[in-house]
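Model the whole thing, not chain by chain.
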Amino acid sequence: MSLTILAVDDSRTMRDMIRMALAPSGFTVHVAEDGIHGLEVLDGIDPDAIITDINMPRMDGFGFIDAVRGQDDHRATPILVLTTESAPELKMRARNAGATGWIVKPFDPVKLVKALHMVAG
Amino acid sequence: MSDQNDPMAEIRASFFIECEELLEALQDGLSEMDEGSEDPETINVVFRAVHSIKGGAGAFGLEPLVRFAHRYETVLDEVRSGRLSPDHEGQKLFFQAADHLSDLVRACRDDATVPEDQSQALLDQLNGLLGEQEEDTEVTPEEFEPLGLSLDLPDLDALPAPALTTYTIRFKPEAELYETGNEPQMLLRNLGELGEAQVSCDTSALPSLAELSPETPYVAWTIRLQTAAAEPEIREVFEFVEGLCELTISDASDTEESPPAETLPDAPATIALAGPATDPVEPEEAAAPSPDTPRKSGSGAAAKSVVRVDLERIERLVNLVGELVINQAMLSQSLEQAGLSPHSDAMNGLEEFQRLTRDIQDSVMMIRAQPVKSLFQRMSRIVREASAAVGKEVRLVTEGEATEVDKTVIERLADPLTHMIRNAVDHGLENNEARASSGKPSEGTVRLTAAHRSGRVIIEVSDDGSGIDRPRVLKIATEKGLVPPDVQMTEAEIDNLLFMPGFSTAGKVSNLSGRGVGMDVVRTAIQSLGGRINIFSERGKGTTFSISLPLTLAVLDGMVVRVANETLVLPLNVVVETLSLGPGDVQMLRPGAFVVRVRGGFVPLYDLGVILGYRGPLQDHDRGIVLLIALEDGNRAALVIDGIEDQRQVVIKGLDESFYRAPGIAAATILGDGQIALILDPSDVIASAGSIRPKDRALAERMVEHG
């Protein structure tokens, strides 16, 4: 099952990690560096799921999710939030912003793939 | 996962490169905060830098780094949310923490031992800032937990029996479940992967089509799941939708409830009907998210797209471009010799070729150029450490951080600059009492500036200390036998004694800068970069060390001249004017010292042929040709040459260590005809011509007044 994923993270390391975690499973990974860039990249693709960081310059993860959910095409696109905290209030905030689920950093590649399959098929 | 070892190592390497960038951003942000920046984006940047370092460090299991970054981040988060506003000491602590963070990063990168006790000391201080309220930030349970508690009992049942258990799961999504992009179909499928599932759909709440509101969830599912999995695993499937649905999971192994449901191992058909994924456009819903605009953030971080390239490849490119320039020079020379008309197509083409070559060259140089900012940031750390070591309050002011210099130059400047900065803090600035008694602010200032000036880069380190104590310098130099006693020296000459090997003015050797490494080492380092270093000092006001470096180590706009049948190249940018001497233009001050009249003023005259030892002094300067040179100290000098040949770009070929470092000779080049020519550094030439200058200059000025 090959999924197309958009990964938004301001850290190059994280983007590389995500790409590396997903590539062996045959995912197609697009990356963006922040929320605004994420929206630009999203414009040209139709991802099966989106992964986004929260703390980013220009537009943070919450703003990004909000903007994605505001697009009719992506009201139901699964969005996973990458977070370093497992604090419940952060999950709640992510969910209130419209995130589908979350992954706690540092993530295990297997779990990331599993989580994506769980939300996106 | 063994096949991922390699990419991991690569990502790890790139993580540490990213860390350097983040640390730089951190330093910047802290400096801005220190200067009183009110921009909320500043603290955001600072926070994000630490946060990202922590995130990456976690991925590579760099525990000490994660632990320190986590606490640092927690404190910064307090600042970010306005609950904490750091005072002067707090800011200092932030800087120290940033320095320590970069130590940790480097220690992790190089697999060196991590300075744990230092970490602990700083962690304690950071905790001190936080106060007692948040000793442990890792776990903050919220009202979220209770749901999970109920799973203890069935868990106990499940464990001893790996046999199959049958669960009845009732699952009714709420609207929010769909709004967050979750999909019952996926959940059911994931459940199905745990074992054998019988899914029945409860559509009883579904109204007639006319009354149906498309975005309201009406359906619920009951799943009979026969599985070896325990309840926590089942709950895990619903992790993301916890609280977004009604969910009950019960062990149905004993209570054989009548399953009236049609057995649907797969539920897609039902879901396609029920799920609001098939949503028509709904005005009421669409209206809500539309007015939100992206959160505006500060100007700073415009995302630049960057490619990282191996430096070796750039070196190769630079060298090739150098060859191209030589080649182009040869081509134009042979075309000229062929006697082609300057308006011919070939000559026009050549002109275009020249322009392109120059553009390529500039572009290549820009690749290697880097702002000196990273270097300056390292120096700010040196200042902090040095001032703490000697107990002085010192402020570092930097200017021209954006000035771009060749990367290799930047790297090789770090050591000399470090030494100079330490010197400025340790020797340059007075101690607090001395400052107070001379009416200066107790906080000393060290100024570090960079600027492009007439084709060179000038980097200056200055302090507002007491200036050079010249009598003492002279006394020490005499005592150490560096100069003969009773020698008469100008102020500049005394200052330059500091560069003598084996000279150290520190009354007692401090543990900071007096490590036996003198300014002579600094000067050697600068000279090896093709640079010069000068001192300007004023008693009571301070001292400035000025480093002047060539902009690039590769190409130069040169004036090709002839002296005593030798071909020499001078940097074009220092040549202000060329003159042809007439009778009476040159006047003798005293034997061997001449000045030349230039439009009512007098400029000291130097004969290149004599200075370089090519020939004896000319008897008659009449009809001689003179280059008027601008010196870095703002004065001018006139160089006697025999003729001007050309004005062209030359490729600088460094003279390696095996050549004697002749004063005034900066490098060599290959000319269009294949001939090798030396490139001169006029300031150095004149400096080496002897110490006749200051006195003669004064005399020359007097002559101007009277003439």
